[in-house]
Design a protein that fits this description.
Chain lengths: 259, 449
């Protein structure tokens, strides 16, 4: 704990170095969509903060990550992985998106972030690993894509077991697919209602919640899978669709043009 | 005078007896239960070629040795007698082996010492499963540095010949490599063939291993972290050993030559070619002293457009190799983690003498030797190594990066394989980044140079 504190203290001296790198798996062939959603959330957050970074694709990004999950950022001598720790770390560097919020709004923001962590993230894992069609046709092939036989069979199976364990711990493993769809629907409804016709969840400026929602919802909407139930659900919420388009236009169009 | 004559006669008798024309008429083996006849028949055949009595005795012993090497008998006794019975020839002899077969299941454990770490191996062995010296072994290793492992191996002599063995093994092993800041879990399988040639012992092995590397902590260097993850190695390994030393721990004469070639490139994503050599020569001097010269070196080059993973690289340094440095403390380091080199070499000049004033001479004192030594070596990376690069400048750069240490100490023999060294060492040539350990250094292990 003390080490961490000292590290953060030391790191805070230089605001944002030039060579910040974000590590994830290869986007076109390898990354599975729950990981892609997580990575897109972090990237969106960093874009929203106006922070420069480069994305480094690595076959072994997951094994390199200190927490065993992607994405992680390498900034100076520090490594920080996953959305919430990255947001917290970026804040210690003096960048944040929620400075203007009231305390009530801040706790509301936290609640919505929790909601996404406990529903959308689990639903993504469920869809990609526990729905047989998706697992067999997409997830297995992608997760093992960069490895030779027999690792391309062993590694997806190992991951399958660990996801199963993770979902069992949060009591999602025994849900039926219909129940999972229901959860997604409830979550989308809640987000849609909170958003209303505002530009962002908390008014005119984006917060980390906007980045997180964008990362997950747009991944679910745009990923082509054998089962499209989640995408069909999302399409019913107009506020969310408008929101996705707005963020895409604001933060990603410029990037696309720069290529 | 009389006595002397008697001795003379007796001597003559032995001489005549030994050179007396004789042949083996029958070979009898008693005590066989589950061993198949054919494997015994193959191994006793040389006896039938004996031409005189001395020859019979010599060959009978050689056959006994071979039977022993099969590892299926706990006891072998030889009896030689003149052949009796209806068809008995005057010069015919019976050779009888009284053997006792090993039990169906043997349990064992032994301690192993690597370089300053120890482990305990428990095993179950079943020798002679199908009657032709097939052995099945199940082992479990538990050691310091989180070393854990278990394996299942099978071996069998080919054609009943104890000089040629076929083996197969499947295993799972894990261990920490704190000097490099990573831990590794291996799952592997291999097939191997051991055989003799005019040059020495050979072992040819195919090995397929899935290696999973992870950082030990958040303090591990990023250079190590980049190499974390899964890799698959499928390699052919040839090991050649020629050992004429009289002892493995404190030899007084003879040489050891060991060469290993590994070609990792038949499938998998660890692609490299590795070649290592170790040489040791011993020469006895007056006053029970022995001078020893050791030379070792190795090079590993990536095949195709790859890099060589940290787990396949060479490391150098330690209390039993290049003394005066910490374990694997020589060569490229990053944030205190040894990254290993793709080439290494080292040499050592040792003088072993009895302890001063020879306490416990002829007994306990023989386990100890005083030890004076000079060690030198180098470990690093050769970018794009090729022969035309061996020029004066490169040679100079190599010389300038050489490490050298010298010192003295005491060596204690631990059994027939391991030794303990307590030395006072001065590392005199060092390089930036090396992890040196001047002063008193203690080392225990079975591999030493």
């Amino acid at each position: 704990m003390l080490m961490e504190a000292v590290k953060i203290e030391m790191g805070a001296t230089e605001r944002w170095p030039d060579n910040v790198k974000l590590y994830q798996q290869y986007q076109a062939e390898q990354i599975t969509f729950p990981d892609y959603a997580a990575s897109l959330s972090v990237k969106t957050f960093l874009y929203m903060c106006g922070l420069e970074f480069s994305t480094v694709p690595k076959i072994n990004a997951e094994e390199m990550s200190p927490s065993g999950r992607v994405p992680f950022i390498h900034i100076g001598p520090f490594l920080v992985s996953e959305f919430e720790p990255i947001v917290a770390y970026v804040q210690t560097r003096g960048f944040g998106l929620n400075d203007d919020l009231t305390d009530v709004q801040k706790s509301e923001l936290k609640a919505y972030i929790k909601l996404i962590g406990s529903t959308l993230v689990n639903a993504e894992l469920y869809l990609s690993w526990l729905v047989p069609e998706v697992y067999e046709k997409v997830t297995k092939a992608r997760y093992g894509a960069m490895y030779a036989w027999p690792l391309n069979c062993i590694l997806p199976y190992q991951k399958f077991l660990s996801v199963q364990k993770q979902l069992a711990a949060s009591e999602w493993k025994n849900k039926t697919f219909a129940e999972v769809c229901e959860e997604v629907e409830t979550c989308c409804q809640a987000l849609n209602d909170r958003l209303g016709t505002q530009n962002f969840f908390f008014g005119k400026k984006p917060t980390e919640l906007d980045a997180l929602v964008f990362g997950h919802i747009s991944t679910l909407l745009t990923t082509d899978l054998p089962r499209n139930e989640f995408a069909d659900i999302i399409r019913r919420y107009d506020n969310l669709l408008v929101f996705l388009k707005r963020i895409d236009a604001e933060y990603f169009d410029a990037l696309r043009n720069s290529y | 005078m009389n006595g002397n004559e008697e001795v003379q006669t007796l001597h003559l008798d032995w001489e005549t007896l030994y050179s007396k024309p004789a042949f083996v008429q029958r070979v009898l083996v008693s005590g066989l239960k589950r061993t198949k006849d054919d494997i015994i028949t193959k191994n006793v055949k040389p006896l039938l070629q004996a031409e005189n009595f001395g020859d019979i005795v010599k060959k009978a012993e050689a056959v006994s040795d071979r039977l022993q090497q099969l590892g299926i008998f706990s006891r072998i006794k030889i009896e030689i007698d003149t052949c009796k019975g209806a068809n008995a020839n005057d010069n015919g002899y019976d050779v009888r082996y009284v053997v006792q077969e090993s039990g169906r299941l043997k349990m064992g454990y032994y301690t192993m010492v690597g370089q300053n770490d120890g482990s305990l191996e428990f095993n179950f062995r079943s020798p002679n499963v199908l009657g032709r010296a097939e052995e099945v072994k199940l082992d479990y290793i538990y050691g310091t540095k989180h070393t854990r492992g278990f394996g299942l191996s099978l071996k069998k002599p080919l054609n009943g010949n104890p000089d040629t063995w076929f083996g197969a093994r499947a295993y799972r092993e894990q261990g920490d490599y704190p000097w490099s800041g990573y831990k590794e879990t291996d799952h592997g399988a291999g097939l191997d063939l051991s055989f003799l040639s005019l040059l020495g012992n050979h072992n040819l092995r195919w090995e397929g291993v899935w290696r999973d590397l992870r950082c030990l902590s958040n303090l591990s260097s990023f250079r190590v972290r980049e190499q974390a993850g899964h890799s698959l190695k499928s390699s052919l390994i040839h090991t050649y050993v020629r050992d004429t030393r009289d002892d493995m721990v404190l030899p007084t004469r003879g040489t050891l030559l060991k060469m290993t070639q590994e070609y990792a490139g038949i499938g998998g994503n660890a692609n490299f070619f590795k070649h290592g050599v170790e040489f040791q020569a011993n020469q006895a001097l007056p006053l029970s002293s022995v001078v020893q010269v050791c030379l070792a070196g190795g090079i590993v080059r990536p095949l195709r457009d790859t890099t060589v993973n940290i787990t396949d690289r060479y490391f150098l340094g330690g209390p039993l190799t290049l003394r005066g440095f910490n374990k694997n403390g020589i060569g490229p380091h990053s944030d205190g983690n040894a990254l290993g080199g793709d080439v290494y070499c080292m040499g050592g000049l040792h003088l072993y003498t009895p302890l001063p004033f020879r306490p416990g001479s002829g007994g306990f004192g023989e386990l100890f030797r005083s030890h004076f030594f000079v060690n030198a070596g180098n470990c690093g990376n050769v970018e794009n190594f090729s022969l035309d690069q061996v020029n004066k400048e490169n040679w100079k750069a190599f010389q300038n990066s050489l490490r050298l240490s010298y010192g003295l100490g005491v060596v204690l023999r631990l059994g027939s394989l391991a030794r303990l060294e307590l030395n006072y060492v001065l590392p005199v040539w060092k390089q930036a980044g090396d992890s040196a350990s001047p002063g008193v250094q203690l080392g225990v292990g079975i591999s030493f140079l």
